[in-house]
Amino acid sequence: MGADRPSGQPEEVVPQINPEITIFPAAIDRPAENSLATKAARRKRLLELMSTEMLQKVQDNFSAAVGVAMVIVDPEGVPVTKPSGFSAFCQAVRARAEWRERCFHCDAVGGRTALSTGEPSIYRCHCSLVDFAAPIIVRGEYLGAVICGQVKLTSDEGATGLVDLSNIFPFEGSWREHQPLLEEHHRINEVTYEKLRSAAYSLFYIASHIVEESYSRGVAQELYTKNLRLAEESKRRAELERLLREAELQALSYQVNPHFLFNVLNTIGRLALVENAPETENTVHSFAEMMRYVLKKSGSQFVQLRMEVEHVRNYLHLLKLRVGDRFEFSLDVPEEFLDVLCPVMVLQPIVENCINYAIEPRESGGVIEISAYRDGVELIIDIVDNGDGISSERKQAVLRGEADRGGRKSIGIYNIDSRLRYYFGTDHGLEILSPFRQGRGTLVRMRFPLEFEPFDF
C-alpha cells in the first residue's frame, strides 16, 4: 500500500523499483556471505576505521541544522551511531522488534542501492517516509551508509530514481493498524527534495572524509608498527652477528697453531704415561679435549648436549686440580637428554661465572650443581651455586653485558642470553634468581625446545 491519504485524492504515482536492485524480504534467508560472522566482521571493520565520536557530533549538528533525521548504519542497516533528530513516530516504530527489523532492512536496501550507483540513493521506507542513503566506501570496500530523512516530500518532482519499499511488507500487523501511530505519522514535516538531497550529500562527503582519514591513520600506524618491528629485528640480528664475530676473534686468538698445540699436549701425555704419572696424563687429556672442543670448526651453531656436558666436566676437573677441595660439583643430566641439540658453548661460561664469583672468594665448602629436566616440550637446565649471590642491579648489568670484572666488560652471560632469545624467541632468555636458597646462592636457568630444526638458523 502507498502512503495514507484522504479519500478522493488521486492515487500517487510511484516510480518502479530498479529490477537490478535485489530486495531481500525479512522472511527470506540471506545469501551465505551474509552469515553472522561476516556481518560481525563488516561491522567491526567500520567501527575500527571511523571515529564514532567525531561522526556523532557532525551528525547531531547536521540534523539540528536541517531538521531531518540522520543515522550511520553498517552494511546490514544496523545503526553504528546514535540516531539524531528521529521523530516520535520513528522512535515508536523502532521500539517494536518486528518493525525495527523492517527499518533495518529498508536502510540496508537503500545502502545497497546507493552502492550499485556509487552515489546517494533516495527511497521510501515501509512507513512511507522518504530517506536518502549515501554509501561509505573506502578503497573499494563498502562499510556502511549515511541515512538521512524520515520525512515527507512536498513533491516527488525531481526525485528521480526513487525506490519505493513501502509495499514490500504485509499490511497485517503493521504500524498502519495503530491509530496513535497514524496520528504521529500525519505530524511529520514535509521538506523539499532539494533540501533533503543537499543534506544527504553534505553529510556523505564529511562522513567519507572522516572515515578515509581514520583509514589512512590506521594504515600509517600499522606501517609504523611493522617498520619498528623490522628495525628491532635488524638490531637483534646485527647484535648477534657482532657477538658471533667477537667469539670468532676470541677463538682465533687461541689458534696460533692448533696442530703445534695438540702435538705438544700429546707429547706431554705420552711422557706422563712413560713416567707412570696417570694424574698428569688425565689432566693433559682433559685439557686437550677442552681445546679440541673450543677450536673445533663447524658450520652449525648447535651441538649435542653430551658434548657441552663433557666440555664442562673437563673444565671442572681441571679447576679441581687447581683449587683442590674448595668446592664440589655434580652433573645430573639424564641419558635421555644427551642427544638433544643445544647452542654451542652455553654451559661453560655460566659455570666459569660460578667459579669466579662463588668459589674463588671461599676457602672451602663451595658447591656447583648442574641439572637437566623436562618441562613439557622444553628442556630446562639449571646451574646453581652456593655463593653470596648477586644484587638485582648487577644481575641486570650482567644481562645487558655492562658488568665489569677487572676493568673489562664481562659479556659471556649477555652473549648466551642474546643467542637464546635470537634462536628460540624473546621469552627464552636466561633466568637469574639470587639469592636462591636460604638467602644465599644464585640459580641460572636456560630452556630450549627438545626438538627443533637447526638448519632454520
From TrEMBL:
Residues 221-257 form a coiled coil. Residues 247-327 form the Signal transduction histidine kinase internal region domain. Keywords: Coiled coil. It comes from the Bacteria. Gene3D superfamilies: Histidine kinase-like ATPase, C-terminal domain. Pfam families: HATPase_c (PF02518), His_kinase (PF06580), PocR (PF10114). One of its GO terms (molecular function) is phosphorelay sensor kinase activity. Residues 346-451 form the Histidine kinase/HSP90-like ATPase domain. One of its GO terms (cellular component) is membrane. Residues 48-215 form the PocR domain. SUPFAM superfamilies: ATPase domain of HSP90 chaperone/DNA topoisomerase II/histidine kinase. PANTHER family: SENSOR HISTIDINE KINASE YPDA. This is Ligand-binding sensor protein.
